[in-house]
Write a structure and sequence with these properties.
Length: 230
């Protein structure tokens, strides 16, 4: 009987200790709860190791993808250059195809101003054309804008005043512009001397060769002149 009462007393004391939280914490033993608290965070050494691994991964990825990105950039620049050259060539062919003459001798169909500067050129070409959609003749002037580094096409009506404002169009980037004329003997001439005498009959070149250079890359257009052919 005494043993039974002692056992019952111990059971009640144990239940009371459970209600007070002595030796237990939210249903778990104290030693387990303390261990879980210690394992819930990262140590400083673990954080430093993780940052080191992350930095190594970034370096490896940059080393592997860097040349690919540079190659893509060069490919993009090359594509832009090709598209710009195609647009310039289309505009040049259209203007040369619409070359025209005038009864007024002061309006020469082709005027060439040569400006050689060693390996680079800043030539200027003026054409008298009959543009589609415009009444009358148009003076088209190609020149190199050395300040902006671009090829410019300016146009105005042939009968307009010399100081009148021209329509300006930027065709693309360019460092050099070289224009040559093919004479009747098939030789390329840097100047078109036949245009100096106003009272002489017009002598047409066989073709016009235009070379544009941009960042060391040269693009050449060979434009035949159909006027004056038998």
């Amino acid at each position: 009987m005494f043993h039974h009462r002692a056992t019952e007393t111990q059971r009640k004391a144990h239940s009371l200790s459970l209600r007070k939280g002595e030796g237990w914490g939210e249903g778990f033993p104290c030693n387990i709860q303390q261990a879980s608290r210690r394992e819930s965070g990262f140590t400083l050494l673990e954080v430093l190791m993780a940052l080191t691994v992350f930095a190594l991964i970034v370096v490896v990825c940059y080393t592997a993808l860097g040349p690919a990105g540079e190659g893509f950039r060069q490919l993009q620049e090359r594509r832009d250059t090709i598209e710009s050259a195609a647009w310039i060539g289309k505009q040049l062919r259209a203007d040369v195809a619409y070359l025209s003459s005038s009864s007024l001798k002061t309006l020469r169909p082709i005027q060439l101003r040569s400006d050689a500067r060693g390996d680079t050129f800043a030539d200027q070409l003026t054409l008298l054309v009959r543009e589609a959609g415009r009444s009358g003749l148009t003076l088209v002037h190609y020149k190199l804008d050395e300040v902006e580094g671009v090829l410019v096409r300016e146009s105005r009506m042939a009968w307009a005043r010399p100081n009148s404002e021209s329509s300006r169009m930027i065709l693309g980037k360019a460092d050099s512009l070289h224009v040559e004329m093919m004479d009747t003997t098939g030789q390329w001439q840097p100047q078109w001397l036949q245009q100096t005498a106003l009272d002489a009959p017009q002598i047409w070149p066989r073709a016009i060769r235009i070379t544009m250079q941009q960042s060391g890359v040269a693009q050449t257009w060979l434009l035949p002149v159909w006027l004056g052919l038998p």
